[in-house]
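In response to a reviewer's request, we include the raw inputs and outputs for one of the modeled complexes. The two entities were modeled together in a single run.
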Amino acid sequence: MTQLALVIDLNVCVGCSACVTSCKEWNTSGSAGPLVDERPYGENPTGTFFNRVQTYEMGTFPNSETMHFPKSCLHCEDPPCVPVCPTGASYKRKEDGIVLVDYDKCIGCKYCSWACPYGAREIDEKQKVMKKCTLCVDRIYDMTMPEADRKPSCVKACPTSARLFGDIHDPESAVSVAIREDGGYALMPEWGTHPSNHYLPRRKTKMKIHADELERADNPLKLDQQLPKPDKDQSTMDDVSAW
Amino acid sequence: MKPAFSVIFLTTLIGAAQGLFLALFTHQSYALFGLLPMQSDDFYGYGTLIVLVLLAAGLVASFFHLGRPERAWRTATMWRTSWLSREVIVLPAFMGVSFLFGVSHMFGIRPEIVTLPGGQVVDLSLLLGVAGTLLAFVLFICTAMIYACLRFLKEWNSPLTVINYILMGGSSGFILAAFYAASAAPDQADFFAGWAIIITVLALIGRMASLVRNARLKPTSTMQTAIGVKHPKITQRSMGAMGGSFNTREFFHGKSERFLRTIKPAFLLFGFALPLLFLTLGLFSPALLGLAFILQYIGLLAERWFFFAQANHPQNLYYQTIG
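The model returned the following structure tokens for the whole complex.
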């Protein structure tokens, strides 16, 4: 069993939205037809996106931190949006776990979007069908592309390599290792949807220095003079330097 | 959630239709056992015609909810997993059986099937009535389960949702039956009005119970679980869209808190209190039964609007600030 997924490193994401634009560019040019864009240069631009970068602030200034948070379909292992679809247009692929919508079967009832706690699905208000991230399924299997390009558009576009792509069921894949070793977590775990996409937390590189690491434990030249001097009849710590 | 008028009309119209069918068949069953005088075939036949008109109107309303109505036939395929698909199958089935029930009365096609030990003759219309009754209840369950099965919409995810759809549909249908009987069979109006009062009281109790329940709900998802950061103060600065998106339009009712607080007592008044008053008065002056039905229908529209608006979708956590 394969489960393709993204792992997004929030420690590295700078919120540039390159993944958003490259996702939109790839998916609006695909065989499924354009992704709707209403008033793109007008006052209230709106449209369908598969991927959005949001920004959150934790704490109150000056003790605050900013986090950029790219959000797209999480390709849940137990997707609640799939069983509710009345037509079978929403489905999860057995071979690679990608959750897809068959745009030719979708009736645009929006019920699947009600059943997704993450708000990952957006209707195309021109084509009147539900759309969502496809993990660039029309790209990752395209044998006419060089192998290095067979990755989702957003992953290719990320200038900081904050986005990893791979099979989370393969324990040796880069994504599995990242989740395991760098604290990968899932969003809203309380609903039991088992999202495949994981996020790596923001983390600070810290070094713990103990007091005895600041002082020379054996102090042959008596430079620090902080350790208690041994009495004359006592041995020194290294048995070499003595009074 | 944003209340969709197509769905509000669908659920209230077919609810009234199912209730009216149940009322007509209840009467026929009473009459079978001699508890009430059997009415003419026309009484049941024309009553069923009203059922069909309401169902058809509901069906038409439902199509306005679909982006691609021409593909609606596909919705019958996923009945194994989807309550919406099940509703799409049961609704026409119920329409079909109602139609046959009406035809069997209107044209007197009532071949005898079996005679009960007590001498009661079970004919075709009665069998169709039993089938229609079962389908009416299955349809109530399907319609309500569409909402009740969504576990993260906690306001809906409760058996009360199913119970209330049955009771409110039943109440609406029995009031309509009382009004219909007041003109078609005046001596039977009290029977329907009596049942209507009982069901309306039960519906009021059920709806109050769900209001009390929903007032005590605590959201399961929080900002912390939504983005996976353990910090008591998390503020959204940007949602990734400047002019709003599907997520900001579909999941927020867009009305003020005050509007919500006004509509709640309004639907309790129009949907339950006033109908009860006019049903009681209607026992003496049948014309008021029509008023009871119309006022209650307005109340039920408001009730359904509130039902949708009150549901708070966890995705809203991700869509709080445009910027």
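As requested, we also summarize the result in words. The first strand of chain A starts at residue 4 and ends at 9. The first helix of chain A runs from residue 18 to 28.
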